[in-house]
Structures are given as C-alpha cells and as structure tokens.
Amino acid sequence: MDVRTYDTVGALPDADWDSLTSGSTIYSTAGFQGVREEELPPGARARRVTAHDAQGAMAAGLEVYSFARPPHALYTPADLLAGLVGEERHAAVASRPLAIGAGWSEFRGQVVHHPDAGPKRRAAAVGALTSEALAFAEKAEASVLAYYYLPREDALDIARAHEDAVVLFHDVETVLPVGLWDDLDDYYAWLPAKRRPRARREVRTFRESGRTVREVALPEVVERIAPLNSALMRKHGHDYGVAKAAEVYGRQGRHLGDRSTLLLAEEGENPVGFALRYRHQDMLYARVAGFDYGYENKADYFNLVVYHPVAQGTGRSTRAIHLGLGTFEAKLSRGAQPVPLYTVLVGVDRPLGADPDAVRERNRAETEAFGAAYARHVVGGVDTKEWQL
Known about the structure:
Elements: E1 2-6, H1 14-18, H2 30-39, E2 45-52, E3 58-67, H3 77-81, H4 87-95, E4 98-101, E5 112-113, H5 119-139, E6 144-150, H6 152-161, E7 166-176, H7 184-190, H8 196-208, E8 212-216, H9 222-235, H10 242-256, E9 260-267, E10 270-280, E11 283-291, H11 300-312, E12 320-324, H12 328-332, E13 337-347, H13 356-374
Parallel strand pairs: 4-6, 11-12
Antiparallel strand pairs: 1-2, 2-3, 3-4, 3-5, 6-13, 7-12, 7-13, 8-9, 9-10, 10-11
Helix pairs in contact: 2-10, 8-11, 9-10
C-alpha cells in the first residue's frame, strides 16, 4: 500500500475521502474534520493518512492527532491503564504527550475503507495506516498511541496491526433502529406490552400541550438554539454560556449545514426545545439538544429524539438514529439498542507491559456490570458475554 499524508483538511481530497464509506460515520467526514481542525487546542497537531492500492485508488483512511495533554477528560489514557501497568509506566503515560488515532471528540472513532475492500485489502490498509500513525506518535514524543471508542471490528483490526496492543471494552453507544417501523403504530407494537402505555402517554402529553415541531437546517437557527443549549449544559454543571454555544454551533453550521436536520419545538412563536441531528448515508446522528426550562416539561426530549421521527416515517429512508453515550436506561427502555465500543492502547516508546490477566478481568467485569445494570431495559435482551474479547 502507498501511504499519503495531509496536515490540513484543505489539502485532503474531499471527494476521494468521502468515497470511503465502509465504516464511516458523520464524524469521519471531511466536514466534521473541518470542525475538529478549528477546535484543536494550542500545540496540538493533526494528520490525515490515506492508503492507496497499486492502481493509485484510495483504499482506506485514518485520522491521527497529537496533544501535550488530553483534550478532554474522557480521552485520558492514564485513567484507562490504572491497575493494568506498573507504577513507573503509568506515571510516564500520565506525564508525556499522547497521540490519538481514528479521530477524537464526539466519542466515536473509525477507520474508513472503500466499500469494495475485502479482508486482505482491509488488513493491508490498516497495517499501512497504523504504521504511519505510530511514526507520527513517535515524532510527537508521545508515550501512548490511543484509538478511542471503536466498534469491535475496527478495534480488533487495529490491535492485530500493532504489537503489544491493549484492547479494552470502554463504553456503549445507543442506536435507535428506526428503520424497523413505518409509523408510531408499528413502534408501539414492537415495544413490550408493559412499555406501550408510557410511550403513548408521552406522545399524548406533548400533543395536548399545543407545541409544534418543525424541521430546519442548523444555520437558520443558531442564535435561537444557543440559549437552549446553554441552559441544558448549565443544568448539568458545565460553564457553557450562550456565546460559547453560538460559537460551537455556528462553526458546525458552516462545515455541516447541508447535512444538518434540526427539530425545533415551539410554543406559539417561542422555541422551547430542539434536537440537532446530522444525516450520513442511511443514518441520522443525534448530536445535541437544548430546552427552555422556564416552560413545563411535556416529554419534550423523547418526543423530539424518538417519537416525532418515528411518527414522521423517518424509518422509511433511515436505518437508525445514533443517540450517543449515556442515559442508558431512558434510551434503552424506549427502544434504543446498545453497541459496545472499545479502545486500543499502544506503547510508542516501549511496550505498555499490561498484565493480560488484569486486562481480561477488567473487560469481563465491566461488560458484566453493564449487563447487570441495563440488560433488562433492552428490547429483545442482550448477552454482554458476547462483548468480551
């Protein structure tokens, strides 16, 4: 495989990159990379790496970044490695720069491939891409190269390409299989009988409130939704003012406005809530929501995120809606399905030396803990033993 690198999104051949549709998400697109490029903290560096076959066609792509310190509390490899490596190695990981492969932010990583790539071509491409990622990490003097929040297949592919890789079950994303239903009647029938009354009640509560929902593009309403998003963030303890929200979603509107689809709930002419989604291939990605807490809650969140899309018939053109991480009981009990995500950690300057037994025990304990807490809420059930590596 021939490897090519690009240090800016502007240099990346967008059309070729976006043709790598296998394994891609909205967060792997050139548009979202443009967002991340503007959000990089001082001193951070980015590189896009592409692998090309003998005919020069792009076969696969990978993003890799370097940081002097973790860009977010949930991207801290020392936390994941606590108890798995020795104290000296752990101290080095915590104090040195780090490199992150397969994207960062939005808590989803990916390696993107040409849709026709078979297993051999895929393995060759991943080998070439990860070799370049490791070289990038070495130049940044990183102690760890981390690939965060990957689906199982990507995690195993990357682990096979590196020596001494540590693969950890990390978190769970929730995906609403909206393609199963043509309308609310289909959805109600799919739910277990005991859950149908609550769903009907939440739909009725919202409808009887007189609130309306209209679909708009993000750039049209940045100034209207910024106060709502700021209110939600402050409710959850974040210092996130209106100006910051307007900056963040103004940026996303510039790079991703044509992919945006925002549901705006209004009472009269006043916005009371919104849910921002992005469309990519046959998926919707729920990005963020916000509400005016001066208004009484009329099951606004679940009407915007679940019930209204189902009632619209979104499932006739969309396979699923990605709902992200967290709030598992609420999402799963209304039909979302859990998808495990993994993180792969690789020593750059020397092997991490993680205890294999401790890694296996960590993965076993954490998958079982998720199952004990949430499996009963999953429609159709789930066997988290299958999530262990």
